[in-house]
């Protein structure tokens, strides 16, 4: 009986080291380090030799070691309490794009329930994930409540909040945009303007509702009862059915474009024409707003600028140990389309 040949044990693949790359490229380990860290002072031919050797050996620089050497991880953590609203999603997208332009990655951590314990846990998890700073997209009223305290040791920036006394805040000019929308409707000749507002616990919704009420009061008009939705098109539809039954409703300022979409559907189903019978303005200027029927007059938010300012401010805090507090407001503009018009005479 033939002797059995023992099966060969597969060789374990070893991880290439910086010294391996240096030997293959014919350069010093210091040169490999300079190339992997993106430092200047390495000529292009040598750099390409090193990169080719890295690729051939499957060498991956030790990001943790590089972070310790530089003193930063080049990662920004983002905590958000909701990914269901357009504003939060577009703000997050803008932050990610601006961070990438600066050479930083973004680590996202959604928090399902906005409580002190959840916030504390989110910061602990981000600490384990090694981030240099944290941006909190906090739409709801929490920072002014005793239940929420953000860690003082973290380089921190807050978006969409009323916390400028205690933190660095970047936000859209919610009040200014709302005033422009309501003034536009009054300027067309409407006797008053109804308001479909956002959730009661939302800072943005409060600012928009307060501005609507203030403009009407300044114009000598009694504000109609405020109707609330939850930012969704479905809640806008339900509110629209209620408003469609009111013959005295000729103009509505809606706190966001999704609810405006639902409102337009309800008005159409009840035979109220827009803008002939009812004028409608929204807030956000989502990409689809110009494709509504009719195209929606709305307040444009510059989400890209909000994201850019967030990243710039948090990097400044990191690099300069800036402790400045206060709120930076990004201007809005009214985009007039076909959903608003003067009221019918008589």
Summarize the model shown.
The protein has 346 residues and is of the alpha/beta class. The chain has 11 helices and 12 strands.
How would you explain this protein's 3D organization?
The chain is α/β, with parallel strands linked by helices and 346 residues long. It has 11 helices and 12 strands. It has helices at 18-25, 29-36, 44-57, 63-70, 86-101, 116-128, 174-187, 203-218, 233-244, 257-269, 303-320, and strands at 75-80, 105-110, 133-137, 156-159, 168-172, 194-197, 227-228, 251-254, 279-284, 297-300, 326-330, 333-335. The strands form 2 sheets. The protein has a 6-stranded parallel sheet with strand order 2-1-3-4-5-11, sandwiched between helices. Strand 1 (75-80), helix 5 (86-101) and strand 2 (105-110) form a beta-alpha-beta unit. Helix 1 (18-25) packs across helix 3 (44-57) and helix 5 (86-101) packs across helix 11 (303-320). The longest helix has 18 residues, at 303-320. The model is unreliable at 4-13 (pLDDT under 50).
Question: Main traits of this protein?
Answer:
40% helix, 346 residues, 16% strand, alpha/beta, 6-stranded mixed sheet, 6-stranded parallel sheet, elongated
Write the layout of secondary structure elements.
Layout: H1 18-25, H2 29-36, H3 44-57, H4 63-70, E1 75-80, H5 86-101, E2 105-110, H6 116-128, E3 133-137, E4 156-159, E5 168-172, H7 174-187, E6 194-197, H8 203-218, E7 227-228, H9 233-244, E8 251-254, H10 257-269, E9 279-284, E10 297-300, H11 303-320, E11 326-330, E12 333-335
Parallel strand pairs: 1-2, 1-3, 3-4, 4-5, 5-11, 6-7, 6-8, 8-9, 9-10
Antiparallel strand pairs: 10-12
Helix pairs in contact: 1-2, 1-3, 5-11, 7-8, 9-10
């Amino acid at each position: 009986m033939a002797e059995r040949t023992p099966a060969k044990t597969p060789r374990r693949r070893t991880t290439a080291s910086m010294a391996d790359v240096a030997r293959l490229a014919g350069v010093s380990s210091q040169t490999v380090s300079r190339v992997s860290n993106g430092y200047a002072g390495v000529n292009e031919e040598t750099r390409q030799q090193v990169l080719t050797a890295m690729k051939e050996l499957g060498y991956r620089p030790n990001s943790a070691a590089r972070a310790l050497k530089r003193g930063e991880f080049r990662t920004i953590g983002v905590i958000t309490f909701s990914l269901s609203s357009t504003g939060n999603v577009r703000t997050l997208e803008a932050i990610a794009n601006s961070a990438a332009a600066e050479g930083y990655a973004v680590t996202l951590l959604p928090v399902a329930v906005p409580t002190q314990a959840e916030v504390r846990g989110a910061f602990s998890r981000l600490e384990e994930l090694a981030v240099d700073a944290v941006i909190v997209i906090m739409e709801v009223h929490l920072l002014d409540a005793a239940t929420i305290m953000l860690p003082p040791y973290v380089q921190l920036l807050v978006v969409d909040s009323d916390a400028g006394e205690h933190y660095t805040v970047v936000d859209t000019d919610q009040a200014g945009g709302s005033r422009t929308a309501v003034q536009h409707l009054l300027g067309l000749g409407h006797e008053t303007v109804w308001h479909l507002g956002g959730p009661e616990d939302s800072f943005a919704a409060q600012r928009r509702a307060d501005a609507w009420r203030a403009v009407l009061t300044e114009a000598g008009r009694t504000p109609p009862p405020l109707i609330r939705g939850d930012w969704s098109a479905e809640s806008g539809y339900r509110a629209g059915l209620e408003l469609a039954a009111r013959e005295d409703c000729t103009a509505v300022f809606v706190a966001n474009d999704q609810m405006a979409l639902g409102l337009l559907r309800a008005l159409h189903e009840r035979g109220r024409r827009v803008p002939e019978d009812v004028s409608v303005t929204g807030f956000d200027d989502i990409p689809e707003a110009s494709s509504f029927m009719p195209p929606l007059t709305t307040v444009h938010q510059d989400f890209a600028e909000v994201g850019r300012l967030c990243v710039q401010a948090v990097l400044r805090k990191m690099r300069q140990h800036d402790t400045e507090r206060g709120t930076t407001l990004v201007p809005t503009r009214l985009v007039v389309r076909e959903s608003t018009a003067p009221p019918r005479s008589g």
